[in-house]
Task: inverse folding
């Protein structure tokens, strides 16, 4: 569950951001919740220790978004902070509170989606999980610990860098790929789904992972694999 908060003293701005967030999360099939705030004091009264992502205005009348963020950082150092402001001059101050991004309101329509894509990469890296069932037991595996997933007809082996290296699940690779579509995975072969966080080399129709594993890639998918990886890395 992605827990999001939006704070702006302008209700119209809050409504617009909430609409963009809902559209994005629904398109990506993400589980999410949104809390709305129209003042910094109201925001600070909320439980910010449980927030994953905060969209915050900088200038809210008598309230300063930088000072508010300093207070929030005392209870939540991992929260991803995105400033949305009508004023560019406050952007440098955002670094003092480790702002992830700074979007001008005039650029919100064009920059919201790419910013959210970057946010999701960061959240995936920090510890979003993949849930699976092993018999009657539900297991949550941190996405960052999954190296690749190997298919055997209607069963998959999830290869990880955890003490229990392999987890087996009765599920097709196609269904697994859909579940992990927004979590940085690319299918390189009919039998392999790879976590792009762990790709160290792409060469000669083969993928080398950070643990040294070499996996074959389908030649007909090769250009698509490279394009997906470069896109994920933010190079195109």
Result:
């Amino acid at each position: 569950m992605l827990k999001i908060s939006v704070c702006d003293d302008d209700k119209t701005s809050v409504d617009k951001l909430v609409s963009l967030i809902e559209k994005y999360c629904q398109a990506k099939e993400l589980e999410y919740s949104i809390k709305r705030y129209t003042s910094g004091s109201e925001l600070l009264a909320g439980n910010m220790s449980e927030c994953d992502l905060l969209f915050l205005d900088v200038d809210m009348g008598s309230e300063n978004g930088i000072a508010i963020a300093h207070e929030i950082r005392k209870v939540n150092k991992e929260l991803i902070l995105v400033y949305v402001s009508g004023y560019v001059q406050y952007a440098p101050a955002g670094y003092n509170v480790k702002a992830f991004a700074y979007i001008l309101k005039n650029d919100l329509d064009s920059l919201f989606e790419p910013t959210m894509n970057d946010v999701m990469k960061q959240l995936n890296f920090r510890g979003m999980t993949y849930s699976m069932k092993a018999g009657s037991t539900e297991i949550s595996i941190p996405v960052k610990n999954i190296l690749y997933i190997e298919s055997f007809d209607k069963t998959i082996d999830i290869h990880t860098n955890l003490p229990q290296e392999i987890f087996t699940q009765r599920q097709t690779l196609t269904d697994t790929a859909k579940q992990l579509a927004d979590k940085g995975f690319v299918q390189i072969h009919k039998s392999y789904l790879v976590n792009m966080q762990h790709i160290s080399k792409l060469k000669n129709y083969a993928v080398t992972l950070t643990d040294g594993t070499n996996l074959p890639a389908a030649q007909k998918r090769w250009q698509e694999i490279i394009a997906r990886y470069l896109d994920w890395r933010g190079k195109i």
